[in-house]
Here is the input.
Amino acid sequence: AAGVRLDGRGLLENREITVHFGQDYGSCAVSLGETRVLAQVSCEVVEPRPSRPNEGKIVTNVHITPMAGPEYEAGRTSDAQDELQQLLESNIKESRCLDLEALCIMAEESVWQLRADVTVLNACGNLGDACNMAVVAALKHFHRPDITVEEDGRVTIHSFSEREPIPTFLKKVPVCLTYAFCQQQDGELIVFSDPTDLEERVVMGKLVVGLNPHGEITSMNFPGLVMLDKKHISFCIMNAFQRARHCAELIEKLVEEDLQKRKLEVHPKGFLGKLISDEQHKRNLINGKVALMSIMSSQFQRVRDKMDVDQNNDNAIKHEMDESNNHDSATEEIDLMDDDNDKENYDEEQRQKDNVEELNYDEEKQKCKDDEDVETVDDDDDDSSSTCSSDSQFSIEQGRSASPRNVATDSSSDDSSDSEDSEEDVKESVNVGNL
Amino acid sequence: NLIVRCDVCGLIVIWRKKSIESRGGETAIRIGMEYISETGLRLDGRRVLESRNIFCEIGINPKSDGSARFEIGNTKCIASVYGPREARYHRDTIHDRAIVKCEFNSVHFSQSTRTTSRKNDRRSNDSAEIIRETVESVLLLHLYPRSQIDISVEVLQSDGGELAAAINCVSLALIDSGCPMKDFICASTSGLIDNTPLIDINYAERGANGPVLLIAALPKSQKIITMQMEHKLELKNLDRCIELGLQGVSQVYEILQETVRKNALQKFQSREQLGV
Here is the structure.
């Protein structure tokens, strides 16, 4: 009543803003009071749009899952999500705050596409401001890898350890501010900024303004529900302009601080710092594959010895395999085999016929043979025939080894990479709990 | 100056030398299309503060409870209102007021190139949401609890300002249907090209990539219900643009009021003839 809100703030006071950065460049989480939003910027080389051949691209994406709050449904794009998408598009894409021509590698052939993915972790009011801030901070923090272009047009992307990455240049920092309106009985209109969750529910209308400190309004959205006089709108926008400068400076300062810390190789704190970085993930994949190869060669040796013993069995199975080509009959084959030995021999047969890459799936079968039905193993079998790239196989394996943890003890050397990730998962969950 | 006739739309366009830049020894002459001539005329011959010609008609769809047609320049749209009536799905109803469902659709032949079928694209959904929220604040929904009002808008021809035309059209259709409202809802666009604020932006002027502001307001009290902006606008021009938007709203209001009055008069006269 006396101009003080539920949480003790004044009418035009903002909540506290904190920004945490992660291990990768371009990963940051912004907290606006209780509202938490995570943004990650990544880049890839693509063909430019034919109408703009010398401009890079930027794509923004917002995800709101039930994690943010029980009122959001899983899988369905809610109104809030559409609104946020629209907001980010107009504030960041259409306002041209990013110098897109600097992202061009070779005109009409290859340009960088920046992709900003925003996930709402906790929705406690004023998602628009938080998402916008997160994307802006992430963009400012992001560094893209250095490249060399050969004469024939091939582009080589250098890793961060080879060459210094290049920062992105934001010409004007877009800031978004939300004002909410409440109408009292006597017709007086109360204006307050940065509504919390509870306030948003009772409020009658919102005005969302996107500004940059240079005095340009990048987006202004005022969907119906409340009737305003011109003077109210002017007042809000003047106030927004004053705060925009302050906000933009804050973000710049925080980003600079973190980049300085990074130079001194200070490890980022918080749960975001525990998230596995891009480089680490790639290294894990390679380590995993190397470990896998060593297992395969040892298994191969073991089975070959057994094969010398059970020659007749092999021939019988081989014959039946030749007759039927579809996987259904192969299912029946495996169903009939309870004997471990026979199964290994069957695997041996497979190996002899198929190429080396499919060996990964036999690994799967051996690992999971204690556990579930053979049916599920056959699902993997089907998958392997459709996608033969080792990447996908390995990722499915990772997924499988994550869930039946007791079975993972079967193959010991694989655990080196798996357990690392599972440790990471455990640490993550612990830290989220602490948060 | 270069005078060119556009092949597509037949407009005569004047390209004027805008500026001469020299950078690194090279001189570049930047030319741009002349949206406002020296005499203050726009591309289609209007003045800076003039809206396009407006034509509207009420009661075109006999089946619906209320319907209207609204044309502003070359932008034409029709709207139909069904309601207030019993809600389709019980779970959607609210115990103390009516709900409003709105659908906004552009026909495939509304623009110069035929658009491929996209039933639920984001643009249409956004526009529908805006119309719904605008209308919800003006209708007296508390008089019809647990009911539903359906609004359906089709844009037949688009030449800039479709959403504004749609809002005007919906306002007329609601009046025709007899839903109690606080006031007319009138909408208009305003924009800024070459540092000159304009009223009622058409399609060609939108191509200038200047800011376009859509304002929907209650004309009597000049209270703004909805405001939407495209592209960037400088702070110092904001006031002027909003003012012009409200001026455009008044211009539309005159015509809408005239039409409704004529329509009401016709209805009364036809009743008199029947001896009722």
